[in-house]
Amino acid sequence: MSTLRLEARELTKVLSSGGKPLTILDRVSLAVAAREFVAILGPSGSGKSTLLALLAGLDRPTSGSVHIDGREIQDLSEDELAILRRDHVGFVFQAFQLLNHLTALENVRLPLELRQEPSAGKQAAVLLSQVGLAERGHHYPSQLSGGEQQRVAVARAFATRPSLLLADEPTGNLDSKTGTFVLSMMSELQRQHGTTLILVTHDPAAASLADRSIYLLDGRVDREEIRRATAAESTR
Ligand code: ADP
Ligand code: MG
For residue 42, which atom of ligand 1 is closest to its CA? Predict the structure, then answer.
């Protein structure tokens, strides 16, 4: 499985809040094609993180279903789900979640070493240079700015060549200029690797990079926008 298609059907999540049911996602349906870059936008509290957790199989819906390459993930065991995530899914979070006792290069190299990739060091160095940090490989996270740390996290996420990359507010801790820079790097790597990318954000800049943007409001799909391909892209 080198590419990945994902579908959510009528996803509903109801929590109990002070004894009363609270609907935080209300019949959300979406289909993401292999290699597509979909941004999920919406104000804080609109249900974006909840939706992403359901798509990743990290949380279970109250009703509705998630299908990955036609398989309903609710039918998979915890072990099968863990293997699916390990082999095919990457994550980028708001808090960069780098290992502080490892250098930038070691952070990117680690997931490759865990898979016993023979050229882990070389691949990690290539990725670091692709995010513009070739010269910073020996620096520890504490010696890097927030934007640089997130670029290391992006390089690490792409290192294992996941079919599907899920990102939850990856620019949430960055100023808008740095955030836009990080998003453009994610978009560049996504295209180059043919990754399916689902990016949750409240950063409107994401909408101009994504193939499609889905706007959530109060747990529902409010609207959807398809970015018009430029002439250069439509011939690729
Ligand atoms: P977003 O990521 O768009 O900010 P979330 O998916 O985190 O939104 O949350 C959607 C809504 O559900 C929010 O109103 C939030 O307060 C509520 N919520 C999320 N998780 C819980 C929880 N475990 N208990 C109670 N309310 C929750
Ligand atoms: Mg959130």
Answer: 3
DSSP state of 136: G
Tell me what pLDDT residue 130 has. Answer: 94
Q: Which of 13, 48, 50, 94 to mutate to test the pocket of ligand 1 (most atoms within 8 A of CB)?
A: 50
Which atom from ligand 1 is nearest to the alpha carbon of 44? 4
Which of 95, 134, 131, 127 minimizes the C-alpha distance to 111? Answer: 127
Cα 82 to chain centroid distance, Å, stands at 17
Ligand 1 centre to CA of 50 (Å) is 7
Q: Which helix (H) or strand (E) holds 55?
A: helix 48-55
Q: Which two tokens stand for residue 72?
A: 């309903």
Give pLDDT, residue 53. 95
* Centroid of ligand 1 to alpha carbon of 201 (angstroms): 14
Whole-angstrom distance, CA of residue 100 vs CA of residue 127:
19
**If DSSP codes are grouped into helix, strand and coil, which group holds residue 178?**
helix
Mean pLDDT by groups of 10 residues along the chain of 236 residues: 81 93 96 96 95 93 93 90 89 91 97 93 96 97 96 96 95 93 95 95 90 97 84 51
Q: How many residues does the chain have?
A: 236
User: Residues lining ligand 1, CB < 6 A?
Assistant: 15, 17, 24, 42, 44-50
Q: Which amino acid is at 112?
A: L
